[in-house]
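Batch manifest, entry 17 of 40.
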Amino acid sequence: MTQENMPVCPVATTIQLIGSKWKLLIIRELLTGTKRTGELKRSLPNISQKVLTETLKSMVQDGLVLRTEYHSFPLKVEYSLSELGRSMVTIFKALEEWGNEYIKNEG
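Output type: structure tokens
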């Protein structure tokens, strides 16, 4: 996302960057460490390969995820959170706490 495309509202900016279901779940997976595409696909069984690839590409372009390519055969690609992506750990802890409270009170 470029500076001119960012909404004025900081909440809207955050939602634009991580607001999709898949982006949130990919970040959740990468918070535990570097993953290859296949590992992400296995941990998110309902995501199509096309959507996973497009979402990762978007997250790399936005600076949330780092893509490391190893020139081997077969090609090895790993994804990890950038410093910017890791800075969202407090957001995810808050989401987890809220979800646990909701489950406890509604379950």
